[in-house]
Amino acid sequence: MEFRTRAIHVGQEPDPQTGAVVPPVYLASTFVQPAAGASTAYDYSRSGNPTRHAFETTLAALESGCGALAFATGMAATHCATMLLESGDHVVAGADVYGGTFRLLKKIVNRAGIETTLVPTNDLERVAAAFTPRTKLLWIESPGNPLLSITDIAACAELAHRYGALLAVDNTFATPALTRPLELGADIVMHSATKYIGGHSDLLGGALVLKDAELRERLYFIQNATGAVMGPLEAFLCSRGLKTLELRVREQSRSAAAIAAHLAAHPRVRRVWYPGLAQHPGHEIAGRQMQGGFGAIVSVELDADLAATRRFVAATKLFKLAVSLGSVESLIEQPASMSHASYDPPERRAQGIADGLVRLSVGLEDPGDLVTDLEQAFRQVF
Asked: Does residue 46 carry a catalytic annotation?
């Protein structure tokens, strides 16, 4: 079956008792057992829930994984993956990553004696140089956040495995509709399901998808022991989101490409980061590992300081000033003061996150209306 067919049918079989086309939402916290100590498919919803299992089944099929685990948030999923590590282990992570991931690795996981080295993962020589005999995990994003750097996933998989480490890929920006990292050699795929999978700004969720059954069991043990699982209502909404994921992401990508091209020629814009532009340094690699579009995030550096950029992001009307991304409505934010404010200022500047940087999450509005909205904001501020 093709992607969009699997998204609708795998894991979403009609209810065998009633014939309901949409499987019911199981809000139960506990399940009656046939006898004391008897093993059944479900006993307690932290350990397993039919609605959560249905979502996990669909997502695993879309990512070409052997299984998936759904979490309360994307950060809970990321934290679970880091709990595979032990004191003394080392992580190599991308410099162009979500601010919450930076905070977790540098300010929480480090308390357990786990060291993290940040490198630009689009530079394979620097990635290789960062590995040590203690390196157990390579964590990347492609496209990166917020500078949309493109990392060669297959090359990173080969490199990580050469050193005996796991490769984990945050696939939130691309989604399986555009990129499937497990097919390129990755071991773990992470999603903030809050974003494109949910798609409507009405849920929090995260997921890990695994290539190997043994690794899935190790992570399931951690998830069950620590308890940050996705609730059944969120799982139902995520399953519904998956059914339209490909259609939404591909249309949003087309709009993003048009907006990126417009902004690339704008006199108040210093630079545009969008992998669909031929001048993007990762354009060729993105073309190989992204199918059907280059994503719906566009980052631009304005010819402006922190204060003027703050006024600009507050001046749009269709683009809503908010963190998050991937929804049907377009969002705008200033990474330096919002999504990446957890970076210390020197670290933020070192990673290229300028005060004038603006990140656009392009939704499903008409792209011409979105361009008009940006232009009126330019006129207000400049």
From this structure: yes
